[in-house]
Fold this protein.
Amino acid sequence: MEVYTTRLRSGIARTKEFERKRLASFGVNVGTKCGHGCSYCSTGAVLRMNRSFKEAGRSPFESGYAIVDPDTPDRVAADARRHKRQRGLVQLCTLTDAWAPEAQKHNLGRRCLEAILPEPGWTVRILTKNAAVRKDFDLIEQYRDRVLVGVSITASSDQDHIMSAVEPHASPISERSAVMAEAHARGLRTYAMLCPILPGIADSSEQIDHLVQMAVSLGAEEIFAEAVNARGPGLRKTQEALASHGHTAEAAAIAGIRRREEWCKYVVSVIANLQRSVRAYSSIDRLRVLQYPTALSAEAIAQIQADDEGVIWLGKEQT
């Protein structure tokens, strides 16, 4: 993994988009390219104009490298002190991962927590795909009422061999699940992040039931979920990664939703399965399905709107 460094401008930044998602009012990011290398990641499409890619001489859609800012905690600390009147929930991170391999080298996750939590009025929502976050549970325990722990779960543990093809440098699902179980056992606040729910891997009613039941058993205060984003080259790269590792059925399922009509059907089905499962095993008011109307057909939008409990409509075309 080739690692480049950059200098970001912000520490703690207001984020209206994540506020609409009900995830956080503020966000922190420790770089512009995450070393986990998830094939479906849409961050490259979001940050494609960032100067750090030009400085590194790399395409935001390439894999095999990371861009990190080792000085992020210094700006975070300054912003945490400076915001006197407006403090609230801050997500660590919104676009990259503070516990990815390149971030671990600089201990960025812990250093950011140490920069924020001593200041009263802040609450932190952690989102990571790396089991290394457990090393910081001792710190989190000191502020247990002001930290929400979320380790992204994208499939069941018995599909580690499949997910390693599309999340090559993230911790195995089995390790992520174990970390969530440890967080719950230690009395830490938890929430579930089931994103993305990939077709042929996690979108059947049985697979969604498994994920929802796991989230409930781990004391998840909220259950966030999302269909895979069709933006950018993510679907193609995911299909290619699965096929190159011999997962032909799963690759075919991804290929199927690259057609708009089939992608719309897949989204409608995922939402319906999530609603049914959460109603059966928890309470629908805990469900947060993040959905952009963009690229959905009018028919698909109408189907979802017929029962959109638990759906958070996003973007300029919010409905």
Observations:
- The chain has 14 helices and twelve strands.
- The CA atoms of residues 184 and 218 lie 6 Å apart.
- The chain has a mean pLDDT of 96.
